[in-house]
Structure formats: structure tokens, C-alpha cells
């Protein structure tokens, strides 16, 4: 499954005739909930946890999609100390397709790490109309990213996921390899006037903060602002009577 979250239900309708007992499904959607949605729709299937990492694709008008890094899939069961037969099958399938992959031992931690990155980097660059370089350089965009990330660390802890400074440092290492003028997917969505994934990012952090009594002011403000950008874009494209 490789669609935006607001297209997931429609995509599952299209997929339904192809799903049987034991069908293995990978979801590369952002956020923490698509696997649960897919598993609820197809209880007969085996939905593995999955995230897509390290790609830098960008749509560029008539030139199509530009990229310098293909990226990889990290996938598996929640615990891959002893990979399951289906995980081994998918590893072989990806090898045959020439696609890079890893299978982390703790896949839930890996998913939360990607969530942390998305909440910080995607939202900060979308709001400031910046590239990856602004996340590395001292300034407002970087400060906003770190503030958003630290709220993720707070809610992750009470959700039983041990994200910490080492995970932030790992993101800094990945960020160092990104092109300075590259755009996150949310920055691209904002520029194109498309619906963003703010509900999956800041919206989820706010909901978890409310659930556990943790203040999440930076993600709340980001959610309001990004929803406002989507609403403004919709007004601009709606014919006036």
C-alpha cells in the first residue's frame, strides 16, 4: 500500500478482490495507524509493519520525479528476533526486485523513530517553506523541528516506546546526507495545494498528549497552521459564485 492516508479507504476497496487467506501486505504510509486500518479491513491477511526511509524524490513539473537517493524499506513483525516465514519471503521478493531493505529487531521502535522524523522535519519545512538545509542550519526552522520532536519523545515514553537523544542524533546523521535544497513530502504538498498529512503527524501527537495529560503546544500550533493552509488552498481553488 503506497497511497496518501486520505486515499487509503478507496485503495482498500480496489485491493479487496486480491486479498485472500495469508496474503502479506506492506504499508509504506506515514504515521502509526495504517497497519491497524488495513488489518481491520482484511483480518484474513498478514499485515507486516513497514516504513520507507532515505528517499528524496520530488515532483518537478514536466521533468517528472527527480531523486538522488532511492531509499529502502524497513519492515517485519513487531519483534524480529526470529524472523517469521512471511518476513523471510518478503525479503527474498524484495531482493529479486532489486529493492533495498532491512528488518530491525524492534520494528515498533523503528516506526516511532520515523514518526518522530516526520512530525519534526515535515511540519517544520512545510510551515517555513524550507528545504533540508534549514533543518541543519541554526535558525527558526531547526528550532521548530526540535521543539516538535521533543513533544514526540514525551508522548512516546508514556506509550511504552523509548525514544531518546540517541534517536534524535541518528536523525541528525541522516539529515546530514540530505540535499540542502531537497523538499520533504509535506512541503511539496503545501506548495502544490494538496491535502497534507497533518492529522497523522501533529494531530496524532496532540491526541496522545490529551490522552496522557501532556502539553503539546508546538504540535497543536503546527496542526492549526497546516490545516489552515489546506483550507486556504481549498478556498482559492473553489469557483466563486
UniProtKB/TrEMBL annotation:
Q: What class of enzyme is it?
A: oxidoreductase
Q: What is the protein name stated in its UniProt record?
A: 2-dehydropantoate 2-reductase
Q: Name one Pfam family in it.
A: ApbA_C
Name the keywords, alphabetized.
Answer: NADP, Oxidoreductase, Pantothenate biosynthesis
Q: Which family does it belong to?
A: Belongs to the ketopantoate reductase family.
**Top-rank taxon:** Bacteria
Q: Tell me which species this is from.
A: Mobilicoccus caccae
Ranges of residues in domain Ketopantoate reductase N-terminal: 2-79
Q: Which InterPro entries match?
A: 6-PGluconate_DH-like_C_sf (IPR008927), 6PGD_dom2 (IPR013328), ApbA (IPR003710), KPA_reductase (IPR013752), KPR-Related (IPR051402), KPR_N (IPR013332)
Give the E.C. number(s): 1.1.1.169
Q: Which chemical reaction does it catalyze?
A: (R)-pantoate + NADP(+) = 2-dehydropantoate + NADPH + H(+)
Occurrences of domain Ketopantoate reductase C-terminal (ranges)? 106-227
Q: In which pathway does it act?
A: Cofactor biosynthesis; (R)-pantothenate biosynthesis; (R)-pantoate from 3-methyl-2-oxobutanoate: step 2/2
Summary of the function given for this chain in its UniProt record: Catalyzes the NADPH-dependent reduction of ketopantoate into pantoic acid.
